[in-house]
Amino acid sequence: VQLQESGPGLVKPSQTLSLICTVSGDSITTKYAYWSWIRQPPGKGLEWMGGIAYSAATYYSPSLKSRTSISRDTANNQFTLQLGSVTPEDTAVYYCTRGSYIDRGKYDYWGQGTQVTVSS
Length: 120
Fold this sequence. Notes:
This protein has 120 residues and is an all-beta fold. The protein is built from no helices and 11 strands. Strands 2, 4, 5, 6, 9, 10 and 11 form a 7-stranded mixed β-sheet that branches. The chain has a 4-stranded antiparallel β-sheet with strand order 1-3-8-7, with no helix packed on it.
């Protein structure tokens, strides 16, 4: 299973950050598969942002829920992240991951991560 993040590396404040995760070796609709976005700001720990289950149900971190949207494109086996109204505090390495819907705290496959910088 491989996951690959793609998207712009630089986003201006107040704009929307959009990232795509392309999955190979598994289907995003595989039963019990759970696909998440996780980020790591510089000098800080990992932060789970949200996820989308095999059923298309979505779940979000309460602290980011108002600004976050996760969706999927089954035809291209991709899932996407949109984070609105970004600020420099959203600067981070963003990862897409695969886990299990039954045990959503664990992730067995990770993308390599993509650096996103929020700056004017």
